[in-house]
Amino acid sequence: MSTLDPTSTPSTLWTNCQAATLVAGANSPYGLLVDAALVVQGDNLLWVGARSQLPPELLAVCQRQHDAGGALITPGLIDCHTHLIYGGDRATEFEMRLNGASYEEIARAGGGIASTVQATRTAGAEDLQASAAKRLRQLIDSGVTTLEIKSGYGLALEHERKCLRVARALGQSHAVDVRNTFLGAHAIPPEFAGRADDYVEAVLQMLPVLHAEGLVDAVDGFCERIAFSPAHIERVFAAAAALGIPVKLHAEQLSDSGGAQLAARYGALSCDHLEWLSPEGVQAMARSGSVAVLLPGAYYFLRETKLPPFDLLRQHGVPMAISTDCNPGSSPCTSLLLMLNMACTLFRLTPEESLAGVTRNAALALGLQDRGVLAAGKRADFVLWDVQSPAELSYALGANPRIQTVFKGQVV
Ligand code: DI6
Ligand code: FE
Fold first, then answer.
1. CA–CA distance, 388 with 14 (Å, rounded to integer)
2. DSSP secondary-structure letter at 253?
3. Residue among 175, 145, 150, 177 nearest 163 (CA)
4. Residue 108's pLDDT is what?
5. Is residue 36 a contact partner of residue 51, using CB atoms and an 8 Å limit?
6. Which pLDDT score is estimated for 8?
7. Residue 377: CB partners within 8 Å, gap ≥ 6?
8. 124, exposed or middle or buried, with CB in 10 Å at 0-12, 13-18, 19+?
9. Phi and psi at residue 365, in whole multiples of 5°?
C-alpha cells in the first residue's frame, strides 16, 4: 500500500511544465528540467525533479494535481532593493528637466530628494500605504513574491517609523514577503543642513528604537560625496553590528569612496549600484561574500555611462543580483522583468545570470536561505510563465508573460 496519510498536510503535484530551478551547480543551464514535477506540501516544496523520476509513493500522497499547461516555472522573483514607500512623485521634475531646467534650478525650487522627503513627511500612513500598494501590485504582477523595502524618505523617527510600519502592513495585506531595511542615512534632512555629524547622531538614536519595535531587518546607508562619508557610515554600521542587524550599502554609485571595502569589513549582505567599484572593492566583496546588487534602472534613468565592473565581479565569483531600485528620483520602475532585459542589454549579463540575479542571488542579498531556487525544502514560491525558454524572460522588452503565481504553496 502507499504511504498515504490523511492526517498529514495535503500535498499538491504540479506537472506538464518545464522548471528553471536555478539550483547552483546544476548540470543544465538554468538548472532546467524539461519535463518537471513539483510536489508542494504546506508552504514548502517537498520534491522537485524530472517527472519520470517522481517516486510512486509521493505520487500516491498528492491529493491535488495541477496541470501547468506547458508553462515554464521559475522561482518567485525577488526584488532585493526598493524604496517603494514615498509621498508624491517627481514626474513634474522629470518634465522640467526635459524642458531645459537644470538639476540645481530644480533643487533650488525645492525639488529633488528634498521634495520627496517633504511629501513623505506630510503624507499620512494610509496615503503612503495606498500609493505604495499600487506599485507593489505592479511588482507582484511581474512575478515578485519577496521584496525588500527601505525607509529613507522620512529621516526623522516618527516618519521613518511610519514608513517601516507601512512596509510591514503591505507584507500582511499582500501575497508577498517584505523585508524591512532602515535607511536613515539616505540624505541629510533640511533641519540638519550643514550638520551631517549631528544627523548621523540622530540616526544612531533612531536605530535601537525602531529595532526594538521589530521594524528593522537590515540597515543600509548612502555612501557618496553628496550623502554620507565612509566615516559616517561606519558609525551606523558599528551600531547595527552591536544590535546584531545585518548591513548593506549604496556604494560607488556616482564616485568611488571605498564604501564597498567598508561594507565588506562589516560582512555586508550586499553592496548596491557599484558603477564606480574599484578592483580592491571587488576583492573585498569576494572575501566577505557580499552580493553585488546591480541596478540597471537607475543607470538608465540617470543616463549614466560608467558601467559596473561586471567582468571583474564574474572573475572573482561575486554573486550578482538585479533589482528595480524602485524610487521616485532615479528609478521609477515597477517591472523586475524590464530589469532583466536591461541587465542584459546595458550590463551585458547573460539571460541566465539575469534570472539568477532576481532569484538565487537576490535571496542571498537578503540573507534568505529558504528561497530563490526550486528545490526540496525551499519555499513553494514560484511563477508560471507563458514562454518556451527562460531566455525569453529577459529577451522581451515590456512584455509580461506571467500566467500565475504560487506563494507559500497557494495559487495567488
Ligand atoms: N541612490 C539613488 O539612486 C536613490 N537613492 C540613492 O541612495 C535616489 C533617491 C532619490 O532621488 O529620491
Ligand atoms: Fe537605492
1. 18
2. S
3. 150
4. 72
5. yes
6. 64
7. 44, 45, 370
8. exposed
9. -65, -20
Helix (H), strand (E) at residue 291: strand 291-294
Q: In whole angstroms, what is the distance from residue 250 CA to residue 244 CA? A: 20
Where are the alpha helices (H) located in 154-258, listed in sequence order?
157-173, 196-212, 230-242
* Helices 113-122 and 157-173, packing angle to 10 deg: 80
Ligand 2 midpoint to CA 152 (Å): 10
Cα–Cα distance measured from residue 401 to residue 16, given in angstroms and rounded to the nearest whole number: 17
The residue to mutate among 97, 153, 330, 331, having the most atoms of ligand 1 within 8 angstroms of its beta carbon, is 330
Ligand 1 binding site (Cβ under 6 Å of any ligand atom): 113, 116, 186, 222, 250, 253, 298, 327-330
Task: Say how many Å lie between the CA of residue 136 and the centre of ligand 2.
Answer: 16
Number of neighbours of residue 22 by Cβ within 10 angstroms: 24
Nearest-5° Cα angle at 151, 330 to 406: 85
Three-state helix/strand/coil letters over 295-349 = CHHHHHHCCCCCCCCHHHHHHCCCCEEECCCCECCCECCCCHHHHHHHHHHCCCC
Cα separation, 200 vs 49, in Å, equals: 51
Q: Are 336 and 146 in contact (CB under 8 A)?
A: no
- Consecutive 10-residue runs of the chain (412 residues): their mean pLDDT? 51 97 95 97 96 93 95 98 96 90 76 92 98 98 98 98 98 98 96 96 98 98 93 98 98 95 98 98 98 97 94 98 97 97 98 98 98 98 98 96 97 95
Three-class SS state of 185: strand
Phi, psi of 149 (to 5 degrees): -125, 125
- In the chain, what is the straight-line distance between the N-terminal and C-terminal CA atoms, in Å? 34
Measured from the Cα of 116, ligand 1's closest atom is 12
61, 4 Cβ separation under 8 angstroms: yes
pLDDT at 10: 78
- Atom nearest to 224 CA in ligand 1: 7
For cell 496519510, the residue is: 5
Atom of ligand 1 nearest to the CA of 187: 7
* Amino acid occupying residue 28: S
Q: What is the DSSP string of 71-116?
A: EEEEEPEEE-------SS--HHHHHHHHTT--HHHHHHTT-THHHH
Q: State CA 239 to chain mean position distance.
A: 24
User: What spacing in Å lies between the alpha carbon of 292 and ligand 2's midpoint?
Assistant: 13
